[in-house]
Amino acid sequence: MSKRIEDYALIGDRRSAALVARDGAIDWLCWPHFDSDACFAALLGNERHGSWLIAPRDKPRLTWRRYRGDTLILETRHENAEGVVCVTDLMPMGTAHRAIIRQITGEAGEVRMALDLALRFDYGSIPPRLRAEPRLVRGVVGPDLVVFRSSIDVACENERIRADFTIGAGESITFVLQYGLSYQPEPGPIDASSAIAATGSCWQDWTDRFTTSTDWPEAVKRSLITLQALTDTETGGIIAAPTTSLPEVPGGDKNWDYRYTWLRDSTFALSAFLNAGYHGEARAWRDWLIRAAAGVPERLQTMFRADGSQHIGHHDISWLPGYDGAAPVRVGNPATDQFQLDIYGEVLDSLHLCEQSGVRESPSDMTIEAAIVAHLENVWQHPDQVIWESRGPAQHFTHSKVMAWVGFDRFLKLAQIRKTLGVACRHDLELLRGDMHRRICRDSFNRGPQELRPVVWIRDARREPAAAPSRRVPADR
Which parts of 97-184 fold into alpha helices (H)? Predict the structure, then answer.
């Protein structure tokens, strides 16, 4: 039986992320990127599909956890009849190679511990070839290289790394797992204590920049830390979640992959960063958006990879049984091919919010906004799959039409701020905005269930055909 979702905690280095269960097992990790193949996939199966357990050999009578201050360093304390032990888990920031550090500290008595590390690449299907030296193990699978270093002796058996050890009060034992490429020099040793201190300072310094007054400062800061953990440090793209195939309904088949950057979700995260005073993070996302939309803005997808690339695809992983039996396990997401009208409004609303907050755009970036609006003029009356990513035929949805109206409204406000839109273009867009408002209020509203009816949008013959290029907003404005 799968462990409860609420029993997992998140650690990450803003390049990838891992889930650590209350029992001391890391059951999910994708390396080297958020959307790479998982090398720990027990979350969607069992320990045979990849997991790293560090726990007392005798079941604890009490386990409690916390993050160290305003950081993403996780501390788990286990208490049993033998004593108390603390396991500190983190993915260090600023290192040349991806890594996980697990440091075990005895706090009372003497506690017998067990380590069981089973790496399984390709979503739990391929174990690496392990080569062991004293306190050092290397594993290779194709391009993937892992290096495991330990402050105690370990054994390799049955394609696993194992150790039994006892830790007393005041003692400390450290394990470091690093990722590299098999055709490049392997990762060198890192000083765990220095890496832990530097990572703690990095997170704490970032969180200390939050000075916005709120009645819930701890909850808000923890939410911001989570958003930052899901923001790719190299590209600024914000992923929706670090996991795939956790079911919408227990035991169901609506198990989607959310390790991508949804334009809609990212705009909400952008608003949170701006409201909290993190303008640099908002600027990084805005720059990511401009790069992702460059070239053919009218081909905006519902989602992109964290680096801004478009090709996502989708397929099922047949050998994983799924979380609590919810199958299939999916990689990629078919919603990337859907037409979701609302994203244009959300993107333009976010760019307007950036402008209001002082995050300025260059003149070349503004042409992308104009191209988005030109495309929106041609498609806003089309049916779509809406915010709920309907898998059925495209339909007309109130939310989509309202967000299309938002797109025109925010673009006009941006033009007013910048004084960049000609009188004729502005007048035409204002007429369209007013017409949309009237039609939405007329055709997307009912006074009770007896009046429910499908919304039918009839294209106004006075406007251009859907496929015709817009002439109202010239690309160079």
Answer: 121-124
Output the CA–CA distances (angstroms, integers) from residue 151 to 161, 251, 452, in the order listed: 14, 42, 69
Give residue 41's identity as a one-letter amino acid code: A
Q: Tell me how far CA of residue 141 lies from CA of 35, 121, 144, 172, 341, in angstroms.
A: 18, 8, 5, 31, 42
Residues of the chain with CATH 2.70.98.40: 5-206
- pTM of this structure: 0.90
What is the pLDDT confidence band of residue 356, given thresholds at 50, 70 and 90?
confident
pLDDT range class, residue 457, cuts 50, 70, 90 = low
- Quick one: 39 exposed, middle or buried, by C-beta within 10 A (0-12, 13-18, 19+)? buried
DSSP string of 11-73, one letter each residue: EE-SS-EEEEETTSEEEEEESSSTTSPEEE-GGGS-GGG-EEEEEESSPPSEEEEEESSSSS-
Alpha carbon distances (Å) from 46 to 43, 52, 255: 7, 11, 18
Beta-carbon neighbour count of residue 461 at 10 Å? Answer: 6
Q: Measure Cα distances from 475 to 95, 99, 288 in Å.
A: 43, 46, 21
What's 187's DSSP letter?
P
CA 470: distance to chain centroid? 35
Question: Per-residue pLDDT averaged across 193-222, rounded?
Answer: 96
- The CA-based angle 46-48-52, given to 5 degrees, is 85
The top-level CATH class assigned to 214-451 is: mainly alpha
Q: How many CA atoms lie within 13 A of 100 on its CB side?
A: 30
d(CA 286, CA 284): 5
pLDDT at 39 over 80: yes
Per-residue pLDDT at 366 exceeds 90: no
Instruction: Tell me yes or no: is domain 5-206 CATH 1.10.645.10.
Output: no
> Where in the chain is CATH 1.50.10.10?
214-451
Residue 125 token pair: 């299907």
Q: Residue type at 237?
A: G
Among 136-145, 172-181, 303-312, 362-371, the range scoring the smallest mean pLDDT is 362-371
| CA–CA dist 320, 122 (Å, integer) | 11
The structure tokens 């070239």 sit at 295
Distance between CA 342 and CA 364 in Å, rounded?
Answer: 24
pLDDT band at 449 (very low <50, low <70, confident <90, very high): low
